[in-house]
C-alpha cells in the first residue's frame, strides 16, 4: 500500500517493521513547510486532521461560521504512506506547532528540521520525530475524537461571482482595513464598482475599489451584483494565510457564502492551498 | 474644497499628518486663500503645530469662496488614510481631498497603482480656528541647521526623556537632558552635547539664554524634516516664552510652537555652580510669570505683589479667527533690572505657590484676562498696570 517511499530520508533509521504498525507515516525534510501553513490557520486551538491518499487536510473552525482548510498534497511530503482510505484525528494545534518548532524554527538557510509524523490509529497519540543537526526529539501528542467538520455545501456551480487577484494588492488593503468596523462589506458586480471592499468605522467609511481591468486582477467573472457583509472578527484570521500567499481567489455563491482560496508557495517552491468559508453576517436582498 | 496632491507631495502631506499626530488628538483643517492649513495642539495647550501648504503644493486647489470652512477631526482617522508610509510612496499616484457638503464628510481619495482606488469618507466637527499667536521674527536667538545635526543630537537621549535644556553662548549651543529636581540630580545621568556654531547654517545669539522644552515635539518635527530634507530653524528668547521650530520651503511652511519651562531661580544657581561651562544665568524677568500665580495673587490680595504677577506670556492660541500675530511681549534686560531693584528682596515670592511646569502658555482661549481683571479691586489693576503696561495693552 506504499504510495511513496524514499530511502534517502534523514529519519529513515526507523525499521520497516516498526513502520508497519502505523496507519499514517508522513515525512518532510523541512518541517517548516508544514508549520508555516498550519500557522496560517491557527486561529482556534483544535484542528481536525484528515488524511487520504491525496494528502493531508487540516480543518479549523470558528463559531460555526468560519472554516479554514489547509491542503498539503501527498507530493509535498518526501514520504506519505497511508494504510487506510481515510485517517482522521483531532489534535491541539498550538501544541503541534510548538513541537514542530521545538528546535527554534530557525529560518537561516541550510538549517532545517526534518520531520517524520506517525499515527498508529484510533486512540493512539500522534508521534513526531524531529531531527536537526543530529539531535532527534520524539513528541507524542494526544489525539482526540475527530469532530465532523461543517459542510458549507459550497459548490462551484452555485458561484455567482468570482475574481482571482494577486495577493499583493489585497494584502495592502487588508493591512489598512479599519478594524473599528464590525463588518467587511464585499461588493462584487459585473458593472462598477466591480470589486469593492468597504468598512464602516468610528471615523467614517472607507472603500477599496479594484477595477476589473487592473493588472492585479487575473480573472474577473461576475454575473450579478452582490453586496454581502462579513464579520471583521471572522475575516481577520484569514490575513495570516493572505500574507503567505501569492494569489487569491474570491468566490461568492448564491447564498452569499464567501470562499477565499489562497495559493501558498512554500520554501521549496511547491504549491499548497488554504481555503476559507465564511457565512455572511446578514441576509441581503440582492434580488 | 477640492484639492489634488500628486506624486511625491502625497508623502510630504502624509508625513505632516503623522508629525501632527504626535502633538495632539485632533487635526484642525482650514482651507485658506494662502493654502491649506493643518494644525494640532496638545491637550495642555503647551505645544502647537501648524503646516501650511501653499496652493502651488497642489495640482488643484479650490476652496469655498462663499464662506470660511474649517473643521476638526480625529487625527487618527486621517492617519489611517495614510497608514502605510512605505507603500504610499510606491503605490499612491494621486490624492484628492474633497468636501462633501451634503453628507458632511471630508473625502480622501487615493489613486493607487494598478487602478486601485481607496476612498475614505471621514466625519468631522465644525471648529473654531486654531491659531497660535507668535512672532518668531522678533526672537533674538535664531539658529538654522540641517535635520541630520539635530537628529544626531537627540539620538543620544533615551526615548523616555521628556525635556531637554538648550543653552547658547555666542558660538556654542549645549543640549542637555533636563532633570526635574535636586534630589534626582544627584542620581540621574546627565548627558550634554555641545554643538559649535559652524555646524549650523545660521547661528545668531542676542541673549545667552537657557530654555527647557519638550523633546517629543522636536522629535516629531525632526521626522518630517528628515524625510523632506528641509533645514530646521529655531527661534527663542528667554525661559518661559515659547520656542518656535520651523521648516520652510517654497510651497510649505511648518511651525511648531512649544512652551518652555519658566526658570526657577534656585534651580538655576545650582546648575551654574555645578557646571562651569554653563553660559551666564538667563535674565529672570519672566521667571515667575504665570497665569496661575497671577490669579492666586489677586485672589489672596496679598498687598504688594511683585511685578511678576503680570499676565506672564502672551496667549499663544486665540480662539477667535484674528490673524494678526501679536508680538510675544518681552521686556528689555535693562527694564527688568530696574524692576528688580525696585522690588528688592520681596518676601512675597515665598508665598507664591510652586511653579507649575508648562503652565499658562496657551490659555488664550481658556482664560480671557480682561473680564477677570474687571472683577478685581481697582488697586490691583493699578499694580498690574504700572508694572506691565505692554502686557495689558496687548490684550
In brief, what are we looking at here?
Chain A is mostly beta strands and 287 residues long. Helices cover 14% and strands 43% of the residues of chain A. Chain A contains six helices and 18 strands.
Structure characteristics:
heterodimer, A: mainly beta, Proliferating Cell Nuclear Antigen, 18 strands, elongated, disordered N terminus, B: 395 residues, 10-stranded antiparallel beta sheet, 5-stranded antiparallel beta sheet, 13 helices, 29% helix
How many individual domains of chain B? 3
Strand order within the widest beta sheet of chain A: 6-2-3-4-18-17-16-10-14
Bin the strand percentage of chain A. Answer: 35-45%
Please name the CATH topology of the largest domain in chain A: Proliferating Cell Nuclear Antigen
Global morphology of chain B: elongated
- Biggest interface: A-B, 21 and 20 residues
Mean pLDDT of chain A: 89
User: How far apart, in Å, are the first and last alpha carbons of chain B?
Assistant: 34 Å
CATH class of the largest domain in chain A: Alpha Beta
Poorly predicted parts of chain A:
1-10
Order of helices and strands of chain A: HEHEEEEEHEEEEHEEEEEHHEEE
The helix/strand class of chain A is: mainly beta
State the total count of DSSP E strands of chain A. Answer: 18
State mean pLDDT of chain B (0 to 100 scale).
Answer: 73
Structural class assignment of chain B? alpha+beta
**Can you list the strand order of the major beta sheet of chain B?**
10-6-2-3-4-20-19-18-12-16
Number of helices of chain B: 13
CATH architecture assignment name of the largest domain in chain A: Box
The general outline of chain A is elongated
Total number of helices of chain A: 6
Protein name (chain A): Cell cycle checkpoint protein RAD1
Keywords (chain A): DNA damage, DNA repair, Nucleus
Subcellular location (chain A): Nucleus
Main location (chain A): nucleus
Amino acid at each position: 500500500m506504499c504510495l511513496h517511499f524514499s530511502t534517502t530520508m534523514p529519519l529513515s533509521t526507523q525499521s520497516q517493521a516498526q513502520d508497519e504498525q502505523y496507519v499514517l507515516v508522513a515525512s518532510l525534510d523541512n518541517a517548516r513547510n508544514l508549520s508555516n501553513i498550519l500557522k496560517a490557520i491557527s486561529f482556534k486551538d483544535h484542528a481536525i486532521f484528515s488524511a487520504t491518499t491525496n494528502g493531508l487536510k487540516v480543518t479549523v473552525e470558528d463559531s460555526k461560521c468560519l472554516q479554514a482548510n489547509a491542503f498539503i498534497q501527498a507530493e509535498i511530503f518526501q514520504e506519505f504512506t497511508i494504510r487506510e482510505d481515510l485517517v482522521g484525528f483531532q489534535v491541539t494545534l498550538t501544541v503541534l506547532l510548538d513541537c514542530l518548532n521545538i528546535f527554534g524554527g530557525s529560518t537561516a538557510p541550510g538549517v532545517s528540521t526534518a520531520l517524520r509524523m506517525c499515527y498508529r490509529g484510533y486512540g493512539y497519540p500522534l508521534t513526531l520525530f524531529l531531527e536537526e543537526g543530529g539531535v532527534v526529539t520524539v513528541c507524542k501528542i494526544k489525539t482526540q475524537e475527530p469532530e465532523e467538520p461543517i459542510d458549507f455545501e459550497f459548490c462551484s456551480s452555485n458561484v455567482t461571482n468570482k475574481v482571482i487577484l494577486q495577493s499583493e494588492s489585497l494584502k495592502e488593503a487588508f493591512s489598512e482595513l479599519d478594524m473599528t468596523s464590525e463588518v467587511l462589506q464585499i461588493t462584487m458586480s459585473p458593472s462598477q464598482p466591480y470589486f469593492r471592499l468597504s468598512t464602516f468605522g468610528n471615523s467614517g467609511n472607507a472603500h477599496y475599489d479594484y477595477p476589473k481591468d487592473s493588472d492585479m486582477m487575473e480573472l474577473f467573472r461576475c454575473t450579478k451584483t452582490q453586496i454581502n457583509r462579513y464579520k471583521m472578527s471572522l475575516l481577520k484570521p484569514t490575513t495570516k494565510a493572505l500574507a503567505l500567499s501569492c494569489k487569491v481567489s474570491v468566490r461568492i455563491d448564491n447564498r452569499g457564502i464567501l470562499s477565499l482560496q489562497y495559493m501558498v508557495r512554500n520554501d521549496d517552491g511547491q504549491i499548497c492551498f488554504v481555503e476559507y468559508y465564511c457565512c455572511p453576517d446578514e441576509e441581503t436582498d440582492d434580488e | 474644497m477640492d484639492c489634488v496632491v500628486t506624486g511625491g507631495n502625497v508623502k510630504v502631506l502624509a508625513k505632516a499628518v503623522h508629525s501632527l499626530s504626535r502633538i495632539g488628538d485632533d487635526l484642525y483643517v482650514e482651507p485658506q486663500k494662502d493654502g491649506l492649513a493643518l494644525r494640532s495642539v496638545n491637550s495642555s495647550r503647551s505645544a502647537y503645530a501648524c503646516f501650511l501648504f501653499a496652493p502651488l503644493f497642489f495640482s488643484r486647489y479650490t476652496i469655498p469662496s462663499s464662506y470660511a470652512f474649517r473643521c476638526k477631526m480625529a487625527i487618527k482617522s486621517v492617519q489611517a488614510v495614510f497608514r502605510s508610509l512605505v507603500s504610499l510612496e510606491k503605490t499612491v499616484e494621486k490624492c484628492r481631498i474633497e468636501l462633501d457638503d451634503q453628507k458632511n464628510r471630508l473625502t480622501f481619495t487615493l489613486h493607487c497603482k494598478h487602478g486601485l482606488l481607496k476612498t475614505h469618507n471621514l466625519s468631522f466637527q465644525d471648529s473654531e480656528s486654531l491659531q497660535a499667536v507668535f512672532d518668531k521674527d522678533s526672537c533674538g536667538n535664531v539658529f538654522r541647521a540641517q535635520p541630520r545635526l539635530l537628529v544626531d543630537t537627540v539620538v543620544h537621549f533615551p526615548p523616555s526623556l521628556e525635556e531637554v535644556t538648550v543653552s547658547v553662548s555666542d558660538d556654542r549651543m549645549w543640549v542637555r537632558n533636563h532633570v526635574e529636581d535636586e534630589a534626582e540630580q544627584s542620581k540621574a545621568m546627565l548627558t550634554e552635547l555641545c554643538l559649535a556654531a559652524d555646524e549650523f547654517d545660521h547661528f545668531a545669539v542676542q541673549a545667552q539664554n537657557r530654555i527647557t522644552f519638550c523633546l517629543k515635539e522636536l522629535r516629531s518635527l525632526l521626522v518630517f524634516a528628515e524625510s523632506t530634507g528641509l533645514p530646521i530653524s529655531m527661534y527663542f528668547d528667554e525661559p518661559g516664552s515659547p520656542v518656535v521650530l520651523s521648516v520652510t520651503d517654497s510651497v510649505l511652511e511648518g511651525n511648531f510652537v512649544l512652551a518652555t519651562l519658566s526658570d526657577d531661580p534656585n534651580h538655576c544657581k545650582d546648575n551654574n555652580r555645578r557646571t562651569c561651562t554653563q553660559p551666564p544665568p538667563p535674565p529672570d524677568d519672566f521667571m515667575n510669570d504665570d497665569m496661575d500665580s497671577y490669579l492666586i495673587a489677586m485672589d489672596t490680595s496679598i498687598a504688594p505683589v511683585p511685578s511678576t504677577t503680570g499676565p506672564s506670556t502672551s496667549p499663544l492660541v486665540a480662539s477667535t479667527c484674528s490673524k494678526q500675530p501679536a508680538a510675544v511681549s518681552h521686556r528689555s534686560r535693562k527694564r527688568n533690572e530696574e524692576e528688580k531693584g525696585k522690588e528688592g528682596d520681596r518676601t512675597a515670592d515665598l508665598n507664591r505657590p510652586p511653579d507649575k511646569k508648562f503652565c499658562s502658555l496657551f490659555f488664550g482661549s481658556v482664560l480671557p484676562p480682561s473680564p477677570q481683571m474687571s472683577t478685581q479691586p481697582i488697586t490691583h489693576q493699578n499694580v498690574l498696570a504700572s508694572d506691565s503696561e505692554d502686557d495689558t495693552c496687548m490684550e
